[in-house]
Design a protein that fits this description.
The chain has no helices and 19 strands. It is an all-beta fold. The strands form 4 sheets. It has a 7-stranded antiparallel sheet with strand order 6-7-8-9-16-11-14, with no helix packed on it. It has a 6-stranded antiparallel sheet with strand order 5-4-10-15-12-13, with no helix packed on it.
């Protein structure tokens, strides 16, 4: 029997992998040459590219799985290595700050030097993760944060949320206890990975009573918000004896034929 090339394919492919071209091998719903051919392609818009968005701890109990920990140095703006030791309130990042996942799935930043002014220049725990990006695509990084304090807490004290994606850290002053959403966008200049970072910075630690200070971050997300169509997928020849379709397509896309 002569093989016939298939002109119509009924299928939907969801590609969520690396940002590189990937192999396509779904099962075909067979058709004949009279089936009209139709193709649509689009980028998945609502997929969180972050690993472990729930902020679960690493297997050894220290830090956060999939993330690196740093200590923000407010004197030179650089990130110092975390101590990564077990402490009273979680993983100890620097001499008086800790990071830990709470039961609610929030990442808790704790400082424990009752009302004492920072003297070593490092009082801002920062977490970092590398996320995959595709050249020319635009991404949005967002998260929620909430700080603790009382009516006297903000006098002579600077608090800020630190965050960035593929760029230098933004330090946004935060002087109340309301829940806020922070976000930034990034357009990739090349295919690969870029760092997202978020954390808490303060020049004084706690309220006038000197109680332990807890601050929280949760609902962290990185999503592709690009509206442009990805490059057309490339499929190898398909005939009536075929059971799979092979070819290449841009990752993080859905393809319908």
């Amino acid at each position: 029997m002569n093989k016939k090339k298939i002109f119509g394919i009924a299928m939907s492919i969801n590609l969520i992998a690396s940002p590189l071209l990937v192999d396509v091998a779904p099962v075909l719903a067979k058709a004949d040459e009279n089936t009209p051919q139709k193709e649509r392609r689009f980028v998945n818009q609502n997929i969180n590219l972050l690993k472990n968005p729930e902020m679960a701890p690493a297997a050894n109990g220290l830090g956060v799985s999939g993330y690196n920990l740093y200590s923000y140095n407010h004197i030179n703006g650089k990130l110092d290595e975390s101590l990564n030791t077990s402490g009273s309130y979680g993983t100890k990042v620097n001499f008086d700050t800790y990071v830990k996942q709470t039961e609610s799935g929030k990442l808790r930043f704790t400082t424990d030097l009752g009302g004492i002014e920072v003297i070593k220049g490092t009082d801002g725990p920062v977490v970092e993760q590398q996320v995959p990006v595709i050249a020319g695509q635009t991404y949005e990084f967002s998260f929620k944060a909430q700080l603790e304090g009382d009516s006297s807490y903000w006098t002579r004290k600077e608090f800020a949320v630190l965050y960035s994606m593929g760029a230098a850290l933004t330090k946004e002053v935060y002087d109340d206890t309301a829940t806020r959403t922070f976000k930034t966008t990034y357009t990739a200049t090349q295919t690969g990975t870029v760092p997202i970072r978020f954390g808490i910075y303060r020049t004084y630690r706690a309220n006038t009573a000197g109680a332990t200070q807890h601050n929280y971050v949760w609902d962290a997300m990185v999503v592709n918000v690009d509206k442009s169509a990805p490059a057309a997928p490339k499929a190898n020849r398909v005939d009536t004896d075929s059971s799979v379709l092979t070819g290449t397509a841009e990752a993080n896309t859905s393809i319908q034929f």
